Amino acid sequence: MLEIVSVEISKFSPSFASETNLRIGVDIPDFMFWFSHGHISMEIFHEHYHFEHSRLHKRSLSPSKPHQQRLESDRRVRWAKQQRARSRQKRDFRPLTKSYQLPIQLNDPKWPEMWYLNRGNGLDMNVIPAWKEGVTGKGVVVTILDDGLESDHPDLEHNYDPYASYDVNSSDNDPMPHYDLTDSNRHGTRCAGEVAATANNSKCAVGIAYGAKVGGVRMLDGDVTDIVEARSLGHNSQHIDIYSASWGPDDDGKTVDGPGELATRAFIEGVRNGRGGKGSIFIWASGNGGREHDNCNCDGYTNSIWTLSISSTSQEGQVPW
Q: Residue 57 has what pLDDT?
């Protein structure tokens, strides 16, 4: 039996993709069936496949009903939906505006500005006592699901892990961001630096877990569909311990959105079977919508039972957004 699944329709874009996803309930996939429907396939995770029709436009204002109906009429297909691009916004930071006394001295130039690690008085993350106990993230592998990662960045190259990295947008092993005139694809590298930038090396900043290994999955620099999210969330789940995502649906106080069927399946597979059965850990930023009176309970990623949602305060202990 074949099961075709796809993403829920997002209202931000009228663009349909030429892609479909199938679940095949047999040990040996029927390649003649794939060929008869004019698709190219890729395995997402166990028994789940990605189909892309070579004779359809990559993006379209309307769905391809004849191809949809052809699939649905096949006795081996339970149901089918086309992929559709979704709005996913990066969740960024605001710079520090005040100075204060540092509890410890590091030679990283940005260390004096990293109040969330060194402010003290209940206004930071209380990690310095953990560092003093030798807890620095050593032995932990983190991957950043975002717009790419500069693997040769001088503050990250020592901790970079190629086995925790992949380019879903281009389907290759190099997560290097593709920069443009707006210089917008640097968010993932910054997020990686917050996690695992090398400490006390006279370069840039220091990561909260500066002993951890870090990789990046480039998946936000293109159409974000259910299959893109699922492939990212399921990447090398027996090697990666923690998946970190600082993005989500629009934080505009009006959008209610969340993971589609495949992304949800990736969460479940990871939690049940990742890390050798201990379960993958999915960390999500709660969002930047405070000033829009946005409620993160309307975000199906931060509100999911499969994720740990992280919020923040400003350096004055106030709502930051």
A: 61
